[in-house]
Amino acid sequence: MATEGEPSSYVKIIQLFVLSTAWGMQIWVTFIAGFVLFRGVSRHTFGLVQSKLFPFYFYTLLGCIFLNLAIFASYHPRELLSAWDTVQIVSFFVGLILAASNASWLSQVTTKTMFKMQEIEREHGLGDEVGLSARREAYQLLKEKDAKYQSLRQKFFKFHGLSSLCNLAGVFCTGVNLACLALQLDSL
Q: How far apart are CA 106 and CA 158, in angstroms?
């Protein structure tokens, strides 16, 4: 049910706060935290940190996008949507689907597969190196020797790639919403 009239200042503040929280979180997790951790901790520690961080990240993002979509939709009836409004509501909806896919499916499959890979790697003395491995040959040899490991690795990269793609598309959707919001400001 659409709410009549302009949103109150309080509602505007909530929407801007929640949208900027989602954006900041997306930028930090996507472009900063991962690279810092990758260069600073062992490969298996990096995987463990991400396995704890990503569910919280995706569900928080899902909540932020849902709240923004609910606020936006309640003040923008479908019959009265302008072109900018349509872009925004579609961006919110797509971002919601992408975050839900990551939260409920992609990141879970990726994490489970990663832990299975790590078990095999530990058996071969791998996983304690930091950053790009000087032991690439050992991983390559393991992949060639162990069909189960190779299968897990393929599955991991498939789901990790899909998860990353969904996340980047979600960053784009949030950026579009911020741009639309900024272009509609009367003043700063």
A: 10
What are the tens digits of pLDDT across the range 51-78?
A: 999 999 999 999 999 999 999 999 988 8
User: d(Cα 105, Cα 163) in Å, to the nearest integer?
Assistant: 9
Backbone phi and psi for residue 133, each to the nearest 5 degrees, phi listed first: -75, 130
pLDDT in tens, 18-40: 999 999 999 999 999 999 998 99
84 vs 123: CA distance, rounded Å:
55
Q: Give the Cα separation of 52 and 80 in Å (integer).
A: 42
- As a whole number of Å, the CA-based R_g of the chain is 21
Q: Where are the domains of the chain?
A: 9-183
